[in-house]
Amino acid sequence: MRPLEPGERVLLQDAKGRRYLLTLQAGGSFHTHRGRLSHDQLIGRPEGEVVTTDLGQRLLMLRPTLADWVLKMPRGAQVIYPKTISLMLMAADVQPGMTVLEAGAGSGALSIALLQALGGGGRLISFELRPEFAAQARRNVEAWFGKAPEAWELREGDVLDGIAEVGQVDRVLLDMLEPWLVVPPAVHALCPGGVLVAFVATVPQVMRTVEALEGSRSFGLIETAEAIMRPWHVEGLAVRPEHRMVGHTGFLVSARRTSEPWGPPAPVR
């Protein structure tokens, strides 16, 4: 088991389930109302152990998962929640070695998950329209991996202006206000059988995205689902849904690129 080292992130959880994320520094210290804990007490120890503050509070010590990091990392744009990221990766069927186009890098949460799923042989091209969001996404990706992965290319600008220059891709994932505008150029960018997945927040956005996909006659298996995960409190006989939860965060619209026209012709308006 690799021991914790200076510069690593560590997740501490108390008996009530409260979580604290910190970066280990030699000589540093962690404070709560239940006491102080020196970083030097954690450095060199394996994760999974229980440590104790100077006032006797016991804390479980673990390396954070990506889900932990996403919820606590610095944000520019609103991040996609871990439950939605996992659904997007599954809907898009992202695999090692693929080439993926992402539009709306935001704070970099989805970018990190995609880079992990793609592995060293894959390639991710991320578009972000706003420079301040692109800068935050780059900082978060570098913080998670230690440096920007070679497989990642972050482009500042409008995906509509740059998608034609990317070449053919295996997957297109969209987290943007008007994803239906990307459907026409995505027809040319996606390889046959490729998957497009869009995350949108409202029903009108769903309607316009599905309308664009159907109207192109270049996509099949068009599906829409709501991203919901309901946590439960389990303590002895007290088993109930949590009083507080992140309920609706948005919808996922997914579709597969066809190699020939599919579906009825668009109605004449």
How would you describe the overall organization of this protein?
The protein is an alpha/beta fold and 269 residues long. Helix content is 27%, strand content 30%. It is built from seven helices and 15 strands. It has helices at residues 66-72, 82-92, 109-118, 131-145, 159-166, 183-189, 203-216, and strands at residues 9-13, 19-23, 29-32, 35-38, 50-52, 58-62, 99-103, 123-128, 152-156, 169-174, 190-200, 219-226, 232-235, 238-241, 251-257. The chain has a seven-stranded mixed beta sheet, with helices on both faces. Helix 2 packs across helix 3 (109-118) and helix 5 (159-166) packs parallel to helix 6. The longest helix is centred in the middle third of the chain and has 15 residues, at 131-145. The radius of gyration is 22 Å and the shape is elongated. The model has no long low-confidence stretch (mean pLDDT 89).
Features:
269 residues; alpha/beta; 15 strands; 27% helix
Structural class of the helix and strand makeup?
alpha/beta
Q: First CA to last CA: what distance?
A: 65 Å
Classify the helix fraction into a percent range: 25-40%
What's the Cα radius of gyration? 22 Å
Number of strands: 15
**Strand line-up across the major sheet:** 9-8-7-10-11-15-12
Number of helices: 7
Molecular shape: elongated
The major β-sheet equals:
7 strands, mixed
Mean pLDDT over the residues = 89
**How large a portion of the residues is in β-strands, by DSSP E?**
25-35%
N-to-C order of helices and strands = EEEEEEHHEHEHEHEHEHEEEE
Query: Could you list the spans in which at least 5 consecutive residues all have pLDDT below 50?
Result: none
